Amino acid sequence: MTGPDEVLGAAPQDEGDTSPGVVGRRPVESVTLAVVLAFASLMAWDNWRTGIRWESTGPQAGYFPFYVSLIMAGACIWGLAVEIFKRGTPDEPFVRRNQFRRVLQVFIPTLLYVPATEWLGLYVASFILIAGFMILVGKLKPWVSIVTALVFSVAMFVTFEIAFDVIMPKGPLERMLGY
Amino acid sequence: MEALGLLLLGFKVLLTWKILALMMVGLTLGIFVGVLPGLGGPNGVAILLPLTFTMDPTSAIVMLSCIYWGALFGGAITSILFNIPGEAWSVATTFDGYPMAQKGQAAEALTAAFTSSFIGSFVAVLLITFLAPRIASFALQFGPPEFFAVYLLTFCSFVGLGKEDKHKTIISMALGLLIAGIGMDTVSGTLRMTFGSSELLRGVNFLVAVIGLFGISEILLTMEERLALKGHAARISLRVVLSVWKDLPKYWVTLVRSSFIGCWLGITPGGAIAASFMGYNLAKRMSKDPESFGKGRIEGVFAPETAAHASGTSALLPMLALGIPGSGTAAILLGGLMVWGLNPGPMLFVEHKDFVWGLIASMYLGNVVGLIMVLTTVPIFASVLRVPFAAIAPMIVVSCAIGAFAIQNAMFDIWLMVLFGVVGYVFKKIGIPLAPLTLALVLGSRAEDSFRLSMIGSAGDMGVFWSNRLVGTITTLALVLLFWPLISRGIRALRGRPRGA
Predict the structure, then answer these.
(1) Which of A148, B57, B331, B383 is the Cys-Cys partner for B340 at CB 3.0 to 4.6 Å?
(2) Closest CA to B337 of B199, A40, B345, B315
(3) What residue ranges do the domains of chain B occupy?
(4) Are A32 and B187 an interchain contact pair (Cβ–Cβ within 8 Å)?
């Protein structure tokens, strides 16, 4: 880094990521459009069932969303047509393998965290998520991670449970402490 | 003037220790989320919303808007020191801000950015103070057809003026409208799109969707990029501040022009990003020495920052006066208002005078306090970036989960948030904009109600949207904006032909 200033270093530069792409951007776009199209059709069908006609009191409940679904379906078909038209032209990766690994590193713990809040209570689950993530993914010093996670979870507990009376899912530990 | 008296009333509401303390907390949190990589205004406001649930509306909205100001100021820090724009509209600030930092003028660049943000927002707040009440009292005469026409105008201008592919904007908006319609129909009481699920009976809460769309998806994106944080340290001394301020009058043309562009585009939905680039480009084009732009010229910081903040602030004008947010963040603030049963729009100025003027007064105060705070605390906040992302990421996930759960005490909402996180991640990567979705989510049920009420009033005749001059003008304007890309192409073709022939 040029310049006379101190450099605040952090994670290594990752711009030259040349790991192979997991999947192309265009297939993902097509699949997304198809899923949205299916969603739009489902909604259109449900609203049609609810009623899209006129009553003496005005349009039925399904009227407005039905036409919105039709517009959405139309936009999807238009998008898919564009994709088919562009087929064969070069594509860029949607996500590279290294990138995807990092995304999963945070997504999978998040996915596990949600049921854990139900069983263990939100605060204990949060402690485990933060400490675990810092140690296993961040490769940070275990004691730093555990102290950080503990301070954060306790601070949250004090802020929401005690100071602001916002009730969160609680588990065995809180019950033991009498909350 | 009536506005001035009411503004004084607003200041009286604000000047309590409790509110001042909340302002400081809000600003600090805001700068903090603004500085954190990958988080900016909308994400910050969305994640921190639950903190305000137990407060009274005035305190809560003051704190939220201070979070917003703080995030705006914080975005400039990362743009200049780290070359990472906190928000899309900070991109233009990096053009000259980062080169200045590289040349060792980080302090000057930061002072310039903060000062011009302050000037831009200040001009916009003045505009809000004097214009918003007038628009609101004018809008009091609006009936359902007029309101629907204004909503239509908002939606159409997003489609017509947005830079994204048109079909993607439409998909995003339609999805928002559909999701907003899930649950009990407000007019007839019929259930729809619930598929027998008792969880969906309540409908999809706007804030749950926003926390997922902005908070969770942003974490995924930031992890993916693993931002390389290399930047410059900066300490701002009083001497630097004064020397930058002394030169300020030299740039008055740039400042006035950028403020004007910003206010104009900010009121138009979706204009904030365009404003910063337009401010920058005009300053460059009108300069005597356009070559020096992009190499660390202080004017190149003044121009986009003033425009971006003028537009970011004036985006709140249509939100307050008409109930239509001009930007994604304004939409989230609006969602926040609705949590307390306050319906933004013209009636707010009549029914909740102290609230509206408290909010407007807080914009003045928040700006001044924010400017002083960022000027004095830059080194502290710049060091926030040293905190490893591995510690910040799970904490943000936890904050999001608490926020999503707190809204309706439902486990289902946390799952919904995760789902919206994935949707937001995929949408952002394939270029489906999230702002129209946010806007449609927050406006959806009101747009539908006003449409149905107009239809009931006119017994199903679409002609009601052209029944008088006002509603006819707005509806026509909406359709013109919707087809603007086609129209402008047509005009260009007509103009280009004689020259080509």
Answers:
(1) B57
(2) B345
(3) 2-486
(4) no
End-to-end CA distance of chain B: 58
What radius of gyration, in Å, describes the C-alpha atoms of chain A? 25
- To test the contact with chain A by mutation, choose from B192, B211, B216 the residue with the greatest count of A C-beta atoms within 10 A, namely B192
In this structure, what are the phi and psi dihedrals at residue B295, rounded to the nearest 5 degrees? Answer: -115, 10
SS3 track for chain A: CCCCCCEECCCCCCCCCCCCEEEEHHHHHHHHHHHHHHHHHHHHHHHHHHCCCEECCEECCCHHHHHHHHHHHHHHHHHHHHHHHCCCCCCCEEEEHHHHHHHHHHHHHHHHHHHHHHHHEHHHHHHHHHHHHHHHHCCCCHHHHHHHHHHHHHHHHHHHHHHCCCCCCECHHHHHHCC
- Distances, alpha carbon B14 to alpha carbons B8, B22, B124, B366, in Å: 10, 10, 20, 11
**pTM confidence score:** 0.82
Q: Does B250 touch chain A (CB under 8 A)?
A: no
Which pLDDT band holds residue A80 (cuts at 50, 70, 90)? very high
Q: Which chain B residues are closer than 8 Å to A116 by Cβ?
A: none
Positions of E strands within B37-140: none
pLDDT at position B49 = 76
pLDDT block averages, 10 residues each, chain B of length 501: 76 81 87 72 73 78 83 80 71 83 84 88 88 84 86 83 83 92 80 80 84 85 71 72 82 85 76 73 80 81 86 84 78 78 78 82 86 82 74 86 85 93 92 85 84 83 84 87 85 71 39
Q: Give ipTM to 2 decimals.
A: 0.88
pLDDT on residue B65: 82
Instruction: Cite the beta strand spans of B152-205 per DSSP E.
Output: 183-184, 191-192
Does A6 have pLDDT greater than 60?
Answer: no
State residue B338's pLDDT score. Answer: 77
Minimal C-alpha gap between A29 and chain B (Å): 6
- Cα B287 to the center of its chain, rounded Å: 30
**CB contact (8 A) between residue B411 and residue A169:** yes
Report the length, in residues, of chain B: 501
Quick one: CA dihedral A12, A13, A18, A24, positive or negative? positive
A155 CA to chain B: closest CA distance, Å? 12
Which of 405-424 (B) contact A at CB < 8 A?
405-406, 409, 411, 414-415, 418, 421-422
| pLDDT score at A115 | 93
